[in-house]
Specification:
Blueprint lengths: L1 E6 L9 H7 L5 E8 H4 L8 H18 L6 E5 L1 H11 L2 E7 L4 H16 L4 E4 L21 H14 L1 E5 L5 E5 L44 H5 L1 H4 L12 H6 L4 H11 L1 H19 L21 H9 L5 H13 L4 H14 L4 H11 L5 H12 L14 H8 L4 H6 L15 H18 L1
Parallel strand pairs: 1-2, 1-4, 2-3, 4-5
Antiparallel strand pairs: 6-7
The structure holds flavin-adenine dinucleotide.
Length: 448
């Protein structure tokens, strides 16, 4: 008999909650990853750096397991077909995994749970992707928070309310929040199933190709985190961690990074709290994946002009800070947070294009794309979200540039023709666009 540990967005062999519990169970553990065609078939380009990153990461994990006489089972297909086949192939005692809060993932897991239930096999799932799930950070009066500041206050209280100790890598005893304590997977590594190396599909087998997009490293200097609050808003400098993709796929542990953040920089910790915040919003209010968090914003009469949208996507709006951001995104799969806010505001408010169009474009392009944070960011920019800026506050791209890129360094890097006659005139006039936006939002909200 074997237990299966099913990896999804937790691709690491250390400090992994579900994996730790699987290895402590009664049966040898066969680790599994499924390249899920329900997700992959929707990707538009065969050159997708995220699929390549997944593939590289799994190959690395497989290799390190094989050095110890274990392996990783990698399947490509539809979970609804793969799971019944696995139950025929292996004598499965139990299945372990870490929870995923996206609507599709919840549906998929429910399907697998029912299948296993019918076969009398337990399905154990664990919290690993976030520090706190929705029910752990609740209002004093009950219910989950939909406003960030009080949420983050309670989040920190809960974190500090339960202290524990652990032995750090230098062998010293250290005090740590119970919730940040690492799971010592390494201590149980001999409980993986002994097996010959297992085959793994290549990228090409799955219809994908390598890309030349660079993935930011998994580690970040303490110096950067220490000064994060001073550098994080300036897109021309490397003042943020670029860890997004690693948090997304779990190639780093959120507990470890939150622990560091707590020691080094409160502003950085706050950003990690935003991540938990949006994850619990999606979990508790799954309608946000399709509709506005505040329903009345679904009445805004978007213009949705296709030609305007194309100019925005290509970074040809004639607003240099917007164009720089879109070109950075198209070239690298990354866009600085400040500029994400500016480009998102420009699309929804200056061009009156539905935030879902922008959300979908970012989803296609961002290496760190994460449904909950992307949706949260877009709904914030559009004014339709939980914690949104009021709709009548319209970002002025020129003042944003003066404040955050005053020497045009970021702009010149991504828009080399800026300042020449090859650079387009602004596609809309700021003052007109602002008034048009206010009118549209007002009329939409009145209709609601
Ligand atoms: P850092 O500034 O170094 O922050 C560290 C980590 O904290 C990030 O990697 C991320 O995991 C988390 N974080 C930081 N800011 C936020 C935030 N506002 N909300 C949630 N988590 C945050 N973040 C994503 O991870 N995926 C997305 O798809 C995504 N889409 C966005 C779309 C829009 C319109 C906006 C305004 C923001 C979006 N963000 C998204 C949030 C934020 O811009 C990115 O997390 C950040 O820029 C990633 O760069 P970094 O890793 O250098 O972040």
């Amino acid at each position: 008999k074997v237990s299966i540990f099913w990896f999804r967005r937790d691709l690491r062999l250390h400090d992994n909650a579900g994996l730790y519990h699987a290895l402590r169970g009664a049966h040898p553990v066969l680790p599994l990853f499924i390249f899920d065609r329900e997700i992959l078939d929707d990707l538009e380009s065969p050159k997708d750096a995220r699929v390549e990153f997944l593939h590289d990461t799994l190959a690395g994990m497989k290799e390190s397991l094989e050095q110890e006489g274990h392996s990783l089972l990698v399947r490509y297909g539809f979970p609804k077909e793969i799971w019944p086949a696995l139950l025929k192939e292996f004598d499965v005692a139990a299945v372990y995994t870490n929870r995923d809060y996206e609507p599709y993932a919840k549906k998929r897991d429910q399907m697998v749970r029912e299948l296993l239930d019918n076969a009398g096999i337990p399905f154990h799932d664990f919290k690993d992707h976030v520090i706190f799930e929705a029910e752990e950070v609740q209002k004093k009066t009950g219910g989950n928070y939909t406003v960030f500041t009080p949420y983050s206050r309670t989040w920190k209280e809960v974190l500090n309310n339960r202290m524990d100790s652990f032995t750090n890598p230098d062998g010293e005893q250290q005090e740590i929040s119970y919730y940040l304590k690492p799971y010592p997977v390494e201590a149980y590594a001999s409980h993986f199933l002994e097996t010959e190396p297992l085959p793994m599909p290549t990228l090409e087998d799955m219809g994908f190709e390598p890309t030349d997009i660079e993935i930011p490293p998994k580690s970040v200097s303490r110096g950067l985190i220490r000064t994060y609050d001073e550098t994080r808003d300036i897109p021309a400098i490397n003042g943020t961690s670029r860890l997004g993709i690693h948090f997304r796929f779990g190639t780093i542990s959120i507990r470890e990074k939150a622990w560091r953040a707590k020691q080094l920089n409160d502003t950085f910790l706050n950003e990690l709290i935003w991540r938990d915040f949006y994850a619990q919003i999606l979990d508790e209010h799954p309608h946000v994946a399709e509709r506005s968090f505040r329903p009345k914003y679904d009445y805004v009469p978007w213009r949705n002009d296709e030609a305007d949208f194309k100019k925005w996507c290509e970074g040809k709006t004639g607003y240099p800070i917007v164009d720089a951001g879109m070109r950075e995104l198209n070239a690298t799969g990354y866009m600085h947070n400040r500029v994400r806010m500016i480009t998102a505001s420009f699309l929804t408010k200056h061009l009156l294009i539905d935030w879902r169009w922008g959300e979908a474009y970012f989803a296609k392009k961002l290496l760190d794309f994460d449904l909950s944070s992307n949706n949260g960011g877009w709904q914030w920019a559009a004014g339709s979200g939980t914690d949104a800026a009021p709709y009548f506050r319209v970002f002025n791209p020129y003042s944003q540039q003066k404040k955050f890129d005053k020497d045009f360094k970021y702009i010149k890097k991504w828009v080399p023709e800026f300042g020449t006659d090859r650079y387009p005139e602004p596609m809309v006039e700021h003052k007109m666009a602002r008034e048009r936006c206010l009118e549209a939002y007002k009329s939409g909200l009145e209709k609601a």
